[in-house]
Amino acid sequence: MSEPASISAGIAGRYATAAFELAKDAKGLAALEKDAEALAEALDASAELRSAIASPVYSRDAQGRAITAIGAKLGLSATVAKTLALMAAKRRLFVLPQFVAALRGLIAEEKGEITAEVTAANELTKAQLDKLAASLKASVGKTVKLKTSVDESLIGGLVVKVGSKMIDTSVRSKLASLQNAMKEVG
């Protein structure tokens, strides 16, 4: 991890831990989880929001007003709204994506869940997703949330990332292995 990314992750982690602990003490983890999802969706959907939180051109007050308005529109809990206001006052909104990721991680850890990133050649059916989740749960011993995407260049099969482990059963990977084996022979 690069030094600026590491610093950003550290800043975001401290804010996320504080918000998580406050929500946990107030028995508000469900609201915190909803807020994290709403913020993630807003960041994904709005290039303007990503620009506003990252740009040094906007003043503290402008960022504070903007994030307060966004928080009200999203219906964020008081804990998250106050945390975002503090981040704006301290010029730390640029770490908002890492803050959301850290919150999601803390919530998942509290619930005993782990996220698996699954890339498939084709869209998976509900039955396939359920079977994959059950198989991964048996393997890792925790409830598994699947984050799926489609990459047609895989030709067939799956690439599954769970924590630091990666399982690549794609046809593309098998063809690359075969090609390497043939190079070694000839």
* Class by alpha and beta content: alpha+beta
Q: How much helix is in the residues?
A: 55-70%
* Integer count of domains: 2
Number of strand segments: 4
Any guess at the CATH architecture of the largest domain? Orthogonal Bundle
Q: Which consecutive residue ranges, at least 5 long each, have pLDDT under 50?
A: none
Mean pLDDT: 92
What sort of overall outline do the alpha carbons produce when their principal axes are compared?
A: elongated
Helix-strand pattern: HHHHHHEHEEEH
Q: Order of strands in the sheet with the most strands?
A: 2-1-3-4
CA(first)-CA(last) distance: 39 Å
Beta-strand content estimate: 5-15%
Task: Describe the overall structure.
- This protein has 186 residues and is α+β, with helices and mostly antiparallel strands.
- The protein has two domains: 3-109, Peroxidase, domain 1 (Orthogonal Bundle); 112-185, Glutaredoxin.
- The protein has eight helices and four strands.
- It is elongated.
How is the secondary structure organized here?
Layout: H1 3-25, H2 29-45, H3 47-54, H4 60-74, H5 78-89, H6 96-111, E1 113-120, H7 126-140, E2 143-150, E3 158-162, E4 165-168, H8 171-185
Parallel strand pairs: 1-2
Antiparallel strand pairs: 1-3, 3-4
Helix pairs in contact: 1-5, 1-6, 2-6, 4-5
In short:
Helix content is 65%, strand content 13%. The chain has helices spanning 3-25, 29-45, 47-54, 60-74, 78-89, 96-111, 126-140, 171-185; strands at 113-120, 143-150, 158-162, 165-168.
